[in-house]
Design brief:
Layout (H helix, E strand, L loop, with lengths): L9 E4 L2 E4 L4 H11 L6 H10 L8 H12 L18 H12 L10 H9 L6 H10 L10 H14 L5 H30 L1
Antiparallel strand pairs: 1-2
Helix pairs in contact: 1-2, 2-3
Length: 195
């Protein structure tokens, strides 16, 4: 978004403007609904759009435009999740109050503004400290860093994200696929040595 542009108040499709309420709470509710597997896709989109407007119309096309407007393209790489709006809610609220003077319990905030502020919380808050611990790589073991590694392992365990059942199943499937790929590589490498 360009610096001179105003925050969007809706989306336009084929010359028709759909006014939507992009308060961060509404968008978070919408995101929760879009992750539900107990609804058929059409019902999920309709319920999700109801978080932004009382009278959803042209639901599928509006939701496509909303996704394009509000959410950044995800990189194709294997990005590791480092924050949770549910688990880190208290840390995020405290960081916004400490860093920006914004009370997320009471103040309205457009999703795009919320997202930019969240991504740029400066050092000095507990939230930025927790993210730093979660993302810090574990140093290779040497005879000099046993204490540092022990401290980091304990700190990572204390602030680790709790995976949902669905996330645990995906992680398990990925781990099994990685083990299988490793075994296949070893078998193929062994075949090459016998010939």
């Amino acid at each position: 978004m360009k610096l001179q542009e105003a925050l969007p108040e809706g989306v336009e499709i084929n010359g028709r403007f759909y006014r939507l309420d992009f308060d961060f709470r509404n968008v978070l509710r919408m995101m929760e609904i879009m992750q539900r597997d107990d609804l058929i896709p059409e019902a999920r989109e309709h319920k999700a759009l109801k978080c932004l407007t009382k009278h959803p119309r042209n639901v599928h096309r509006v939701m496509l435009a909303v996704r394009a407007l509000l959410f950044e393209e995800k990189p194709t790489g294997d990005e590791k999740k480092v924050t949770s709006f549910e688990q880190d809610a208290g840390l995020i609220r405290s960081a916004f109050r400490q860093c920006y003077g914004i009370d997320l319990f009471r103040d309205r905030l457009h999703w795009l503004e919320f997202r930019e502020l969240l991504q740029n919380i400066p050092d000095g808050s507990r939230y930025s400290e927790v993210l730093g611990i979660r993302t810090r790589p574990m140093p290779k073991a040497t005879k000099y860093n046993a204490e540092e590694r022990q401290w980091l392992m304990k700190a990572k365990a204390q602030v680790a994200l709790h995976l949902s059942d669905e996330e645990q199943a995906k992680k398990y499937d990925k781990d099994v696929a990685n083990v299988f790929a490793g075994l296949m590589h070893m078998i193929e490498a062994g075949d090459g040595q016998d010939g």
